[in-house]
């Protein structure tokens, strides 16, 4: 069953929850072949009831210890611009649409989402442009994000501190 | 209150200026020569912040060899999530390598999210009172941090130990991957105070030429 996972992170993003559960967006989900939508709503005041209508299911929860499983199960992740959610989703190799909260001014987390968008790893929109973006985006065109070079960092640090290489 | 703030500010700026000058003269010259790893192991103090900062720094810790032992983690007092993440990583390390040791220490946060800058100064001074003795007790060879506010007082304490000739501590700063165009406040301060300063995006390398750019490392 093709499913999408929406995550707002540790705070709230009511506008996003309202947008993704609006009739027009649900309609687009169905046109794209999605049959399930899972919402992580955090501290939000907008709390849609979990329900099933026809062949479409809506699941809702506030928080879970780890959203890794939800990401793993999803065919598309729609996320706030938080670095954690972005990196976790891309790390899992899942297509990602970041919805920017334009009511948060000077949010430095946007820098990362914007850059990853420029590099072709994710799509990027606001609640107002969500429907248009969902209609036009091509998930197969997204480039996978290669894992960070932690090994190179470790080797560099070894040299800095003068640890001899043991093989 | 106002005068206390001004006095605290002047005092701190004087201290920082003094530290920077002393450091420039004494320590930077010998940065390349100081190789604590020659003895076979490196005591590390890891500053885990909260949330994203912790995730990032733990990914770096994961890649380090068992020679980085023991590892002393410092977290903010109000941070509950980080402790679990650290324990989780350490359990897996214990499984991989024998004789690994770690400890977790809590210090007051130097800045809560949304806290004003003037009161940040006071809380930073407050956490300096805690971080000084902590760094002195642990005497690590290396401090590894990536930007939570808590790392500034810890690094300043480490510098002081070096300046006072008590213990030379290498300060390695890795700017968070979130910073693409601008440095964080901690980054702006520690660009001058750290021994090795890593950035993860090319734009920052251009703006801050002394930084080290290896690509994305987390």
TrEMBL record, chain A:
Family as reported in the entry's similarity comment: Belongs to the glycosyltransferase 28 family.
Protein name (Swiss-Prot/TrEMBL): UDP-N-acetylglucosamine transferase subunit ALG13
UniProt main location, coarse: endoplasmic reticulum
UniProt EC number: 2.4.1.141
Naturally occurring in which organism (per UniProt): Erpetoichthys calabaricus
Keyword annotations of the record: Endoplasmic reticulum, Glycosyltransferase, Transferase
A Pfam family that the UniProt record links to this protein: Glyco_tran_28_C
GO cellular component, one term: endoplasmic reticulum
GO biological process: dolichol-linked oligosaccharide biosynthetic process
GO MF terms held by the record: N-acetylglucosaminyldiphosphodolichol N-acetylglucosaminyltransferase activity
Originating gene: zgc:92907
Compartments it resides in: Endoplasmic reticulum
Residues annotated as domain Glycosyl transferase family 28 C-terminal: 5-147
TrEMBL record, chain B:
Gene Ontology CC annotations of this record: UDP-N-acetylglucosamine transferase complex
Transmembrane region(s): 6-28
Matches recorded under InterPro entries: Oligosacch_biosynth_Alg14
Keywords for this protein: Endoplasmic reticulum, Membrane, Transmembrane, Transmembrane helix
Topology in membrane: Single-pass membrane protein
Subcellular location: Endoplasmic reticulum membrane
GO terms for MF: N-acetylglucosaminyldiphosphodolichol N-acetylglucosaminyltransferase activity
Gene Ontology biological-process entries: dolichol-linked oligosaccharide biosynthetic process
Pfam families per record: Alg14
Source organism, top-level taxon: Eukaryota
Cross-referenced PANTHER family: GLYCOSYL TRANSFERASE-RELATED, UDP-N-ACETYLGLUCOSAMINE TRANSFERASE SUBUNIT ALG14 HOMOLOG
Subunit annotation: Forms with ALG13 the active heterodimeric UDP-N-acetylglucosamine transferase complex.
Family per record: Belongs to the ALG14 family.
Protein name: UDP-N-acetylglucosamine transferase subunit ALG14
Organism the protein comes from: Erpetoichthys calabaricus
């Amino acid at each position: 069953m093709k499913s999408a996972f929406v995550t707002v992170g540790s705070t709230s993003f009511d506008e996003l929850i309202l947008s993704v559960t609006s009739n027009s967006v649900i309609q687009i989900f169905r046109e794209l072949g999605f049959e399930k939508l899972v919402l992580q709503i955090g501290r939000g005041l907008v709390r849609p009831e979990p329900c099933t209508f026809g062949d479409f299911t809506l699941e809702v929860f506030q928080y879970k210890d780890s959203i890794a499983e939800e990401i793993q199960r999803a065919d598309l992740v729609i996320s706030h611009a938080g670095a954690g959610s972005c990196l976790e989703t891309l790390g899992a190799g899942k297509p990602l649409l970041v919805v920017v909260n334009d009511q948060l001014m000077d949010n430095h987390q946007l820098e990362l989402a914007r850059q990853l968008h420029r590099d072709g790893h994710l799509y990027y929109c606001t609640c107002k442009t969500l429907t248009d973006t969902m209609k036009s985006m091509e998930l197969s065109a997204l480039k996978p994000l290669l894992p960070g070079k932690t090994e190179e960092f470790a080797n560099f640090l070894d040299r800095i501190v003068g640890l001899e290489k043991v093989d | 209150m106002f005068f206390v703030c001004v006095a605290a500010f002047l005092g701190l700026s004087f201290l920082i200026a003094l530290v920077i000058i002393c450091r420039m003269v004494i320590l930077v010259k010998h940065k390349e020569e100081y190789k604590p790893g020659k003895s076979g192991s490196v005591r590390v103090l890891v500053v885990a912040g909260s949330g994203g900062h912790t995730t990032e720094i733990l990914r770096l810790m994961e890649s380090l060899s068992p020679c980085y032992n023991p590892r002393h983690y410092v977290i903010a007092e109000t941070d509950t999530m980080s402790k679990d993440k650290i324990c989780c990583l350490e359990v897996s390390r214990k499984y991989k390598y024998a004789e690994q040791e770690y400890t977790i220490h809590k210090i007051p946060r130097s800045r809560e999210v949304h806290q004003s800058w003037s009161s940040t100064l006071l809380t930073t001074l407050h956490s300096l009172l805690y971080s000084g003795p902590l760094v002195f007790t642990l005497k690590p060879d290396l401090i590894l941090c990536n930007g939570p506010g808590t790392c500034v007082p810890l690094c300043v304490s480490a510098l002081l130990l070096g300046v006072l000739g008590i213990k030379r501590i290498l300060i390695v700063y890795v700017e968070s991957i979130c910073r693409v165009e601008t440095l964080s406040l901690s980054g702006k301060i520690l660009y001058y105070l750290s021994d090795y300063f890593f950035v993860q995006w090319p734009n920052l390398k251009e703006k801050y030429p002394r930084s080290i750019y290896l690509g994305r490392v987390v």
